[in-house]
C-alpha cells in the first residue's frame, strides 16, 4: 500500500475533498510530523513544508501544479502579538510547521532587523506564531490587538506569493505516483470549488462567507511561475543561514 501524508487542516480540504484511490492510504499528521515520516520513508509522499523539499532536493521530487500557497495574504499563518512587531522581544514559534518557523525568522530578523529570544513557553512570549486552524480560531477570538499575516509580510517585500507546502514525493516511490496525485488533486479541487460556489461546503466554526474568503482570497492550491520564483528566494535565505531540518 502506498501511503500519502495529509495535514488535517482546513487549507488541505480542496486537495483531498474527493480523494478516491484504493491503492493509496491517507495518513494524517501535523506538518512537522509528516516531514519526519517522509524523510524516514514511512510515507511515500505528502503535502509537507516546502522547506523540506528545498533543503533535501536530492531525496525528493514534487507534484507539479499543486501547493499550499498564499495569494497576497494567507490568513492562517499569523503572528499574534501584544506589542507592535518592531517592539517584539520574546517569540513563541509553533512546533507544528517547519516552513512557517523559518519564515518567521526571515521576517523578524531579516525584514525587521530584530534579535528576539525564541521561547517554548507561550505564556512568557509577547508574540506567538500560530498556523492552520489554530490561527484561524485565535483570530476569531479577538484576544490580540496586533496580528500580522506572514504571507502578507513576504508579499510586501517581494510582490510574490509564499509557498508554504509542496506535494513532495520520495524519489524511491513508484514512478507513476506523482502523476496520479496530480490527477486526484485536480479532480478534488474542481469538485470542491464547484460545491463551495454552490454553497454546499459547511465546516463547524466557520460561516459561509468566512470559508469563501479563505478559499478564494487567501489560499491558493496551484503552483505557477511566481510561486517557483518565490521558492527560489526562500531557498537562498535557507542556504545563507545554513539551515538543516531536524
**What is the molecular shape?**
globular
**CA gyration radius, whole angstroms:** 18 Å
> Could you name the CATH class of the largest domain?
Alpha Beta
SSE succession: EHEHEHEEEHEEHEHEHHEH
Helix/strand structural class: alpha/beta
Strand order of the biggest β-sheet:
2-1-3-10-4-11
Overall average residue pLDDT:
94
CATH fold annotation of the largest domain: D-Maltodextrin-Binding Protein, domain 2
Number of strands: 11
Distance between the termini: 27 Å
> Which segments are poorly predicted (pLDDT under 50) over 5 or more consecutive residues?
none
Could you give a short account of the major beta sheet? Answer: 6 strands, mixed
Helix content: 40-55%
Topology:
Layout: E1 2-6, H1 13-16, E2 24-28, H2 31-40, E3 45-49, H3 50-55, E4 60-70, E5 77-81, E6 90-93, H4 98-111, E7 117-119, E8 127-131, H5 132-141, E9 146-149, H6 150-158, E10 163-170, H7 177-197, H8 208-218, E11 219-220, H9 225-241
Features:
alpha/beta; 6-stranded mixed β-sheet; 23% strand; D-Maltodextrin-Binding Protein, domain 2; 2 domains; 11 strands
